[in-house]
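Changelog note: in this version the structure field was regenerated for every chain. One regenerated record is shown below for reference.
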Amino acid sequence: MKVTFEELNRFLQDQFPQGAAYGSLQKLGDGWAEMTLDVDDGHLRPGGTVSGPVMMGLADVTVYAALLSKIGLVPLAVTTNLNINFLRKPQAHTPIRAKATMLKVGRTMGVGEVFVYSEGVDEPVAHSTMTYSIPPEKYQN
């Protein structure tokens, strides 16, 4: 692992403070991460369900954390593709959690997947795959 939980958490707070709106880092391992978002009224869409963009944001930041666990603190690693399938309605006013795993990390790109769960429900509410572009070393600082 190229970065500790504490280092990544500090990096996210310092370099990506808007990321807190998408969830908080709970666990980190070599090529995987888990985040949680406390759902409130601002995260709901009409019909009383968590909005798609909220789940996509949580999924994206969770894969970013999993990627950085493999490559280190590279701020300019960016999402180039995100596919998401919404599988079932999440519980309103219940935290959602995401579990991301990197499937492949190369020199110039990383591919990961993430499952999003509504707390207390065993089946995922969404599944996403995404690709990140990793900048050349000369642009990594």
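Spot check on this record: Residues 5 and 104 are 21 Å apart (CA to CA). The first strand starts at residue 24 and ends at 29.
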